[in-house]
Amino acid sequence: MTTDATSALWTEGWYRFARHVPSPNHGPRPEGIEIDLIVVHSISLPPGQYGGPEVMQLFTNTLDWDAHPYFDTIRGMEVSAHFFIRRNGELWQFVSCADRAWHAGRSHFNGRDNVNDNSIGIELEGLEGGLFESAQYETLAGLCSALSQHYPVTYIAGHEHVAPGRKQDPGEGFDWPFLQRALGWPVSRFPREISSGIRNG
Description:
The protein has one domain (about 35-185): Lysozyme-like (3-Layer(aba) Sandwich), CATH 3.40.80. It is built from 6 helices and 12 strands.
């Protein structure tokens, strides 16, 4: 339930502790939808290179497609996420949580298709299958807690869980047991595919 304290952290879906860089790549959520899912992704541009402006440029449609050979493989793509967490833990926000970001694509989770409709997308700077930094987990845990206090978040999953066979991020290098302990959320809020690892973690 939203309280005065948690409301002070949010202004029309924008989080106080994030750097705001509005993206044009978003749309309205369906009428009456509940924001009950967080989807964790990973991204780096070019793949494996960190610290540059390319991810932000991609999400704001300002990426120079000719600046690197890899960019030709994603030329013209219009995507976004609500949040992006850099390797040093710095938090950026591109889309209001009140709006539908374009992060999950063709997807299905918990009996529903098109999870962009009811989810918050969080991108971590990193490679799918690679390791992530302690500062990123710290920021991610704080953000997830703030989201769950302001929205009816019930579940958290990886892109690989909502688009199996099509996506593999954040991948094997992501420490789900660590995140579960940091949040203190029950295992039932996490994907079944990783629940045994959480219990044993």
